[in-house]
Amino acid sequence: MKVTVIGSGYVGLVTGTCLAEYGNDVVCLDLDPEKIALLQNGGVPIYEPGLEEMIKRNVEAGRLRFTTDVAESVAHGTIQFIAVGTPPDEDGSADLKYVTAAARNIGKYMSDYKVIVDKSTVPVGTADKVQQALLSELTLRDKHISFSVVSNPEFLKEGAAVEDFMRPDRIVIGVADETAKDLMATLYAPFVRNHDRILYMDVRSAELTKYAANAMLATRISFMNELANLAEVMGADIEEVRKGIGSDPRIGFHFLYPGVGYGGSCFPKDVQALQRTAQENGIELRVLDAVERANSAQKTVLVNKILRRMGEDLTGVHFAIWGLAFKPNTDDMREAPSRVIIQELLKRGATVTAYDPVAMHEAERVMSGWKGLTFSQNPKAALEGANALIIVTEWKAFRSPDFGEMKSLLKQALVFDGRNLYDPKRMQKEGFEYFPIGREQ
Ligand code: UGA
Question: Which catalytic residues are annotated (predicted)?
């Protein structure tokens, strides 16, 4: 099938590449010439496990191309995915200017039937706006070409995006007519060979499903984070509580890990956008207001522990930080709790040496010019001479360190762990003062 993907960012690249992998003929469009040049020369602008090899394989097979040419890419695909960015406006609502611009471009150049698929995370009602943008362009050209607008939200997790796309737990398709439904069914058939995991529904329900899923997950995390704070002062252990409640199948074990607050490009933005949509329509989402407040407080939970242990003035205190990305297996620093933690420490006169297995380059970019912050090329070197280690991201490589060596490199045997990587009893035996989340030290 001929497919065009408009927007070669994270979602667009993964979508286009995975569709090419199953034999579709895919063109990925982006208006950023540098990004397209990089992709044309075999480079990949984001870090995502398995993506680079898959792109290479499909480019070599002639099934995947990258271009900045709008007319050519609109002409190419019967199915046109819109996977452009929807950055938050000042008021938290999703800015749809790139989505409508993409729709107008399709309207400007299309000459036969197209299915336009909203893949970007867009508020309920966006499909109607896309439809109007297209219609207004067609009217200008005095053309009567038919088309369908479909909502097909993505549920990819960064760091597991290729796997999530290739083996989806569900594919949500909001569609209003049979022709478009058949085309989407054919496109996704190879991804759901063994089970019928495609959920067809009306367009608005599909649009809302995406926000509902992320908001529900964000709620779980914030709830666990607040329970962890309570467990800690009550002398309970949140890790035991987590197992105790997770074994109820109605609750389940996934996504119950307390930590330093959720970050990334999705949860914070989507929670705000959903609140905004609700407000605009006269509905109060009180639970979500609380989720946001809880999350922003959680980002400083580790700092508060540090201040209680080391005093308010951190002048002359040096910290090692392990983990900068908002979660493992990504270099994404958007809304990463590490940014808040480091800023708070520097503000109080501390110095910081940070290490991350893949996000260092990105971190240097977003934290450039932060006085008192340096980066280390390996985790051990970061520990040298530090008064304490702070763990912010749960990379696998941090799970089994040589504690003896860790102790000898640190100036003080102090570990503040925002991800509960170690057993408190073991840490005590190893001679550390250990501060996890939601469990007694
Ligand atoms: C999230 C959703 O999980 C995807 O289903 C969705 O498609 C995606 O947003 C999106 O809208 O594009 P992602 O932001 O990549 O994916 O990352 P998650 O793995 O969901 O983690 C989000 C944040 O929650 C991270 O900061 C993570 O550290 C935190 N988290 C997650 C916890 O603190 N505890 C948990 O138990 C799980």
Answer: 266
What do you get for the CA distance between the two ends of the chain, in Å? 58
* Strand pairing report for 388-391 and 318-322: parallel
Going along the chain from its start, the domains and CATH numbers come out as 2-201 (3.40.50.720), 211-297 (1.10.1040.10), 299-435 (3.40.50.720)
Largest pairwise CA distance in the chain = 78
Annotated catalytic residue, options 208, 238, 266, 410: 266
Residue 337: CB within 6 Å of ligand 1?
no
pTM: 0.93
R_g of the chain, CA atoms, integer Å: 24
CB 73 within 8 A of CB 79: no
Hey, how many other C-beta atoms are within 10 angstroms of the C-beta on 39?
Answer: 21
CA dist., res. 397 & res. 357, Å (int): 8
Q: Which atom number of ligand 1 is nearest to the Cα of residue 154?
A: 7
Q: What residue owns the CA closest to ligand 1's atom 3? A: 157
User: Is the CB–ligand 1 distance for residue 264 below 6 Å?
Assistant: yes
Long-range contacts of 304-308 (CB under 8 A, 24+ apart): 305/416, 305/435, 306/345, 306/388, 306/390, 306/416, 307/348
Q: 211 in ligand 1 pocket by Cβ < 6 Å?
A: no
Tell me whether 0.85 is exceeded by the ipTM. yes
Ligand 1, atom 26, lies closest to the CA of 262
What confidence tens digit (pLDDT) does each residue in 363-391 have?
A: 999 999 999 999 999 999 999 999 999 99
Nearest atom within ligand 1 for CA of residue 256: 36
Ligand 1 centroid–CA 221 distance in Å is: 9
Report the nearest-CA residue for atom 5 of ligand 1: 155
For residue 194, the model assigns a pLDDT of: 67
Cα 77 to ligand 1 centre (Å): 31
3-state helix, strand, coil in the chain (%, to 5): 45, 15, 40
Q: How far apart are CA 438 and CA 393, in angstroms?
A: 16
Give the integer Cα–Cα distance in Å for 336 and 322.
13
What residues have CB less than 8 Å from 7, skipping those under 6 apart? 29, 30, 82, 83, 84, 85, 98, 102, 120
